[in-house]
Automatic annotation (TrEMBL):
Keywords: Chaperone, Periplasm, Signal
One GO cellular component, as annotated: outer membrane-bounded periplasmic space
Cell location: Periplasm
Species of provenance: Pseudomonas extremorientalis
InterPro entries: Ig-like_fold (IPR013783), PapD-like_sf (IPR008962), Periplasmic_pilus_chap (IPR050643), Pili_assmbl_chap_C_dom_sf (IPR036316), Pili_assmbl_chaperone_bac (IPR001829), Pili_assmbl_chaperone_C (IPR016148), Pili_assmbl_chaperone_N (IPR016147)
Domain of life (superkingdom): Bacteria
Pfam families assigned to the protein according to its UniProt record, in alphabetical order: PapD_C, PapD_N
Gene3D superfamilies to which the protein is assigned, alphabetical: Immunoglobulins
Any Gene Ontology biological process: cell wall organization
Family: Belongs to the periplasmic pilus chaperone family.
Signal sequence interval, chain numbering: 1-26
Protein name listed in UniProt: Chaperone protein EcpD
Keyword Chaperone appears in the UniProt entry: yes
Length: 262
């Protein structure tokens, strides 16, 4: 007797997936690229839409960063309504997030993840033994933002500190985030006397360029093998609250030099 094959595909963001030459995609999408939750706000609404031609059963929950966590095991300072629901084709559903006021860092952002698991219904008339079920899980960052932080999030990216350091057989850009905000980057390049050195490609498809508060991260420059002379500048792209990509430029502290205090 043939068994039903169930394949659960995890995705971060709305992406197309390919499984053994069988095209598949999630029908339910979330509007937006991230969720910003001001700590003093009563609730935040996230809108979902079923772009598919079939109804979908959806389960939603939040976690603290562990992709293996389940609704039964995770604990976050939020309530989510509704946790399980059905979306008809080409219809929308509102997810309501409410912050419970539980203890969270008062001087910096806290990061959580919103999970949306979509399970399409079985197709009528299909033999169960020959059917493949595809379940799609989408994860979206949720930033809990306290009140009265010292400056706006718009200025956070410009406050990143950059330094060129020796790394393996060459050099790397060391980025430090001294701000109370999470800063998400999408590109990092070093400029030196008209030459551009791009950071090494991500080793894995889900490598994150997000820099949490107080984070220090290295961006390897595989083509920079010799000590550079002249002015050093970094060009990088940061992602705003609304998902827009904003270009920035900053000076870079050379190897061995000390950065002056701001």
């Amino acid at each position: 007797m043939k068994k039903l094959a169930c394949l659960v595909l995890y995705t971060c963001g709305v992406v197309g997936l390919l499984l053994q030459a069988v095209p598949a995609r999630a029908g339910v999408i979330m509007h937006g690229t991230r969720v910003i939750y001001p700590a003093d706000q009563q609730e935040v609404v996230v809108r979902l839409e079923n772009k598919g031609d079939r109804p979908a059963l959806v389960q939603a929950w939040l976690d603290t960063g562990d992709i293996r966590s389940t609704p039964a095991t995770v604990r976050t300072p939020f309530t989510l309504s509704p946790p399980i629901f059905r979306i008809e084709p080409h219809q929308q559903q509102a997810l309501r997030l409410r912050y419970t006021g539980a203890a969270a860092a008062p001087d910096r952002e806290s990061l959580y993840w919103l999970n949306v698991l979509e399970v399409p219904p079985l197709t009528a008339g299909t033999e169960q033994g020959n059917q493949i079920e595809l379940a799609f899980r989408t994860r979206l960052r949720v930033f809990l933002r306290p009140q009265a932080l010292p400056y706006s999030v718009a200025s956070a990216a410009s406050k990143l500190q950059w330094k060129l350091v020796a790394h393996e057989h060459g050099y790397a850009l060391q980025a430090t985030n001294p701000t109370p905000y999470h800063v998400s980057l999408s590109s990092v390049d070093l400029l030196n006397e008209g030459k551009r050195f791009t950071k090494a490609p991500n080793k894995e498809a889900n490598d994150s360029l997000m820099m949490p508060c107080g984070d220090v991260k290295l961006f390897a420059l595989p083509l920079l093998r010799e000590y550079p002379t002249g002015a050093l500048n970094v060009e990088f792209t940061a992602v705003s609250d609304f998902g827009a990509r904003v270009r920035h430029s900053a000076s870079v502290t050379p190897p061995g030099a000390r950065r002056s205090k701001p």
